[in-house]
Amino acid sequence: MPDALLGLELVDIQNRIGSVLPGYRASQLYTAIYKQRLRSVDEISTLQRNVRAELASQFEVGWPELQQRFDSTDGTRRYLLRLSDGKTVEAVFMPDGARNTICVSTQVGCPVDCKFCLTALMGLERNLTAGEVIGQILYVLEDNDLTGGVQRVNIVFMGMGEPLLNLPNVLKATRILADPNGVGLSPRRITLSTSGIIPRIAELGEARVRPKLAISLNASSDAARRELMPITRKYSLAELLGACRRYPLRPWEKLTFEYVLLRGVNDTDLDARRVVRLLANLNCIVNLIALNPGPGIPFETPDPARVSSFQSIIQKSMPCFVRKPRGRDVYAACGQLKRVSQKEIEQFPILAEP
Ligand code: SAH
Ligand code: SF4
Questions:
Q1: Interatomic CA distance for residues 109 and 118, integer angstroms
Q2: Known catalytic residue: 334?
Q3: I need a surface site. Which of 160, 225, 274, 346 has the fewest CB within 10 A?
């Protein structure tokens, strides 16, 4: 199988193609795959024909192929994309006026066993390469004609997988995405969400180019968090919040805490007051997510009034937003990514929010 060019940084290209191309061609190739976003070596017309042929014998660009696209009534699109080894992952496009968001996967499946998340039911198949992370984004940009003005696009590593368990590849993808000579996205509009892998939070903070950090809190006590997110048995809330306090925020940055609201489980006013106490003195915002349901998920979505009450308590102390569910009807919303087929959608239909 030819190697993929996507995922190579300029220095990697210089090192790898020395035998095929003179060094000064490396930046032309880098521009062709990330800025011009050409899908095949044949299209790289800045390179001579014989050079292209030589290159093509060893490399492919490495875009994923579309297996299926699921279009929600709210405009959200879920992409099931096939990788070079035949495995499939999902990416989601969420248009919102002039602000478009692309949510991408960092692993095939997820090894973290959160009880409210459909992806958890897949287990982990493998990590994605940096090129496979970037490939999802290029595919969605192209499919939605977002080739100009990419600076306004938000990227969230919130699809399948735990990004901090694939940190080197996630950081490499981020460097290429945020490089003005590469994909050219704004580094301030790239966000990673983690279930809270504490040692990796410190490591993320040391990276020169890194996404913004969002942390899935999801409970207001250790006991509840351990039930809902068994991985947190290793990591107490005190340790998690300690890591957050030590995290080197950039001057323009705040931490984001996500909190999935599960009816009757973690959605009381008492929980909200405990969240306020836990997050006191942190430079942060809170995003509430009312549960997106799915078959096999043993929880229910709280009523909007409960969500509002929870929000109003937190809002008194720090900014708190309710994340609008997007694409629930096609299983594209948070926690719903499990490669659900059209047939399964029809067997377990969920209405999109109006
Ligand atoms: N694995 C990472 C990122 C992907 S999940 C993480 O867990 O942070 C993105 C967000 O969706 C997380 O905050 C997660 O807690 C939330 N989530 C998971 N399942 C959900 C569900 N069924 N409904 C609503 N949010 C969910
Ligand atoms: Fe994995 Fe995140 Fe789902 Fe937990 S919520 S199982 S960490 S994808």
A1: 10
A2: yes
A3: 346
Q: Are 161 and 107 in contact (CB under 8 A)?
A: yes
Atom 4 in ligand 2: residue holding the nearest Cα = 114
185-197 pLDDT per residue, tens: 999 999 999 999 9
- Catalytic choice (103, 117, 244, 334): 334
The pTM score is 0.96
Q: What is the pLDDT of residues 242-291, one digit of tens each?
A: 999 999 999 999 999 999 999 999 999 999 999 999 999 999 999 999 99
Q: Provide φ and ψ at 279, rounded to 5°.
A: -95, 5
Distance separating alpha carbons of residues 160 and 163, to the nearest angstrom: 9
Please indicate whether residue 292, judged by its CB atom, sits closer than 6 Å to ligand 1: yes
Ligand 1 centroid–CA 3 distance in Å is: 33
Q: How far is CA 18 from the centre of its chain?
A: 34
What separation in Å is there between the alpha carbon of 51 and the centre of ligand 2? 44
